[in-house]
Design a protein that fits this description.
The complex is a heterodimer of chains A (about 110) and B (about 110).
Chain A lengths: L2 E4 L4 E4 L4 E8 L5 E7 L6 E7 L4 E4 L2 E6 L4 E6 L8 E8 L6 E3 L3 E6 L1
Parallel strand pairs in A: 2-11
Antiparallel strand pairs in A: 1-3, 3-8, 4-5, 4-9, 6-7, 7-8, 9-10, 9-11
Chain B lengths: L4 E3 L2 E4 L5 E6 L6 E7 L6 E7 L2 E4 L8 E4 L6 E5 L8 E8 L7 E2 L3 E5 L1
Parallel strand pairs in B: 2-11
Antiparallel strand pairs in B: 1-3, 3-8, 4-5, 4-9, 5-6, 7-8, 9-10, 9-11
Chain lengths: ~110, ~110
């Protein structure tokens, strides 16, 4: 069956370090992969979208990689700040127009 | 630009009662989505509209859930009758087109007792 796995345990890091979050999937051939941020009591906020033919995408302190051979995406936040503390969700879309399927999310805690 | 609006923000009902949620998407967004998010899990798509037509409702429990999007703008999601396991946050999202980033509302937290 199709599965999207994100580390359910919280990731605790020190301010200034690089946070790396993992999204693994099985039995999918996604055309797109998206990352969202969700704060408590709020809806998810879109961060980055990467296509299957793209290896890497960057936006300010954020970087996403997409390895369709390993069936894995890595999400990096460099020079992390306490304000980056939130839950980060990855989501896959098989093709444009298909439903977006979300992973369970990983909670990131950045300590000052 | 105004974001996605949802109401109410919170709702507490007893099991077997009915409840309705309302969503107003970002102006001009043709695609509207309803998600259910159970505590500690990622959002799960219930239904996707393209204008006022249904694109995907394969995960909507149609025996108790219904949704409509009249005139291709606002949308309502209804649960009748509610069960304890329906306790969750119901999120509405919209996008320009399928395959583009989705913009989420704040959600409605439903508690069924």
């Amino acid at each position: 069956s199709q599965k999207i796995e994100q580390n359910s345990e919280a990731l605790n890091i020190q301010e200034g370090k690089t946070a790396t979050l993992t999204c693994n999937y099985t039995n999918y051939s996604p055309a797109y992969l998206q990352w969202y941020r969700q704060d408590p009591g709020r809806g998810p906020v879109f961060l980055l979208l990467i296509r299957e033919n793209e290896k890497e995408k960057r936006k300010e302190r954020l970087k996403v990689t997409f390895d369709t051979t390993l069936k894995q995406s890595l999400f990096h936040i460099t020079a992390s700040q306490p304000a980056d503390s939130a839950t980060y969700l990855c989501a896959l879309e098989a093709n444009a127009g298909n439903m977006l399927t979300f992973g369970g999310g990983t909670r990131l805690m950045v300590k000052p | 630009e105004a974001g996605v609006a949802q109401s109410p923000r919170y709702k507490i009902i007893e099991k077997r009662q009915s409840v309705a949620f309302w969503c107003n998407p970002i102006s001009g967004h043709a695609t509207l989505y309803w998600y259910q998010q159970i505590l500690g899990q990622g959002p799960k798509l219930l239904i996707q509209f393209q204008n006022n037509g249904v694109v995907d409702d394969s995960q909507l429990p149609k025996d108790r859930f219904s949704a409509e999007r009249l005139k291709g703008v606002d949308s309502t999601l209804k649960i009748q009758p509610a069960k304890l396991e329906d306790s969750a946050v119901y999120l509405c999202a919209s996008s320009n087109d399928p395959g583009t980033p989705e913009y989420f509302g704040p959600g409605t937290r439903l508690t069924v007792t």
